[in-house]
Amino acid sequence: MKLYINTLGEFDIKSNGNSILMQSKRTYKLYKLFEYFLTFRNKKLLPENIIDNLLSESDSDDPKNILRTQIFRLRKVIKSFVQHDEDKSKYINLNFKNGYYCLDLGENIVIDIDEFEELIRKGDTERENNTQNSIQYYENAIELYKGAYLSDNAYEVWLVPTRNYYQRLYQKTLLKLIELLKVNNNYEKVISLCEKSLLIEPYDELIHENLMEAMINLGQSKAALNHYEYAYKLLERELDTKPSEQFTGFLDKIQNLNFKNNDIDISGIKNNLDEEFIYGALHCDLAYFKVLYNLEKRKSIRKNEDNYLCIINYSSCEKSCTAWSSLLEKTLRKGDVFSFWNENQILILLYNVKEDGINIIIDRIFNKIKKCKEIKKDEVKIVFQPLFREDVITNY
């Protein structure tokens, strides 16, 4: 009888395809201790290091005694995994020798990370001579990766190096597999593979890019555009930053595919130019803001003094950028544009501000600030100047 240990994703131990773990409050800490030994298997571990990693928050005056008690109970649980007539040395052995603990796995234990690495090694070996075999090995390895290493322990510091190692190995293997599939023009499989992988690694730009590239190569411009818009918003929201230039470059590729036949279709072009949702002021990056500013300067012959440049100075905090973005999008008009100059300043272009319009805008901004916990009203200063007159400056 063999025991199979799952670590890529949720931790589990199976026999004949069925879980043999006992789920209870008493076993939770024991399994956490077992996961620690499993992560550092075949290594000598000092009790003091185990205590520092697992029992540092304990109020006990004798943490070594707590550790000994937990290890005693863990050994009993480990024994329960194996039938009485089986040779225990072929399974899981937790030994203590010369002041060190050490976990050894016998020949009847199969652990998914060993299989994962072995399949990748075989795929690398076959890559040059037999790409079909290599693809199969890589696919089997990718199939084993159900999620981050021991994902049920999300916040354990001692897990970070091992978790990062297997995550990077998964990402590298995925990209190698995608490259082999692209050589064979198997873009349908690339799409399927990327869609499944994004369930595990939703914020990996390279996976999104390979998915869109495969859609483009299959002529699926509408699907590629839909995914671009979805991924852009996801990455911007969750990572609190704009996606890379390589990612945003896919928009041009998708649009080129839409109009590669050079037919003049003004309605189609207009639909692609239109924003999906138009609400509030436009938040743009600094480069685009500069383009809009200089466009207005080119119109200076009109001497339109109803357009203004505004600068907001504020004290920054961790959430202030997000708070300012939300506040200005809801407070300014649809035709107004704003961008962050730096972490303490915001630039705003205000168009066609008539009569007492500046005072109205100021009142709106400060009324919103009163309701915002992330922005301190007393540390906000706002300066206005007509776009084409440098002799008039208004401070608030």
What average pLDDT do the residues reach? 87
Spans of at least 5 consecutive residues with low confidence: none
State the name of the first-level CATH class of the largest domain: Mainly Alpha
CATH architecture of the largest domain: Orthogonal Bundle
Q: What count of structural domains?
A: 3
Strand runs, count? 12
Q: Into which percentage range does the β-strand content fall?
A: 5-15%
Helical segment count: 15
- Amino-to-carboxy terminus distance: 78 Å
Rg calculated over all Cα atoms: 30 Å
Q: What best-fitting shape do the alpha-carbon axes yield? A: flat
Order of helices and strands: EEEHHHEEEHHHHHHHHHEHEHEEHEE
Give the CATH H-level superfamily of the largest domain: Winged helix-like DNA-binding domain superfamily/Winged helix DNA-binding domain
In spatial order, strands of the major sheet run: 7-9-10-8-11-12
Largest sheet: 6 strands, mixed
* Proportion in helices: 40-55%
Coarse structural class: alpha+beta
**CATH-defined topology of the largest domain:** Arc Repressor Mutant, subunit A
Notes on the protein architecture:
With 396 residues, the protein is α+β, with helices and mostly antiparallel strands. It folds into 3 domains: 1-183, Arc Repressor Mutant, subunit A (Orthogonal Bundle), CATH 1.10.10; 185-277, Serine Threonine Protein Phosphatase 5, Tetratricopeptide repeat, CATH 1.25.40.10; 282-395, Alpha-Beta Plaits. 50% of the residues lie in helices and 13% in strands. It has 15 helices and 12 strands. α8 packs parallel to α11. The longest helix has 24 residues, at 160-183.
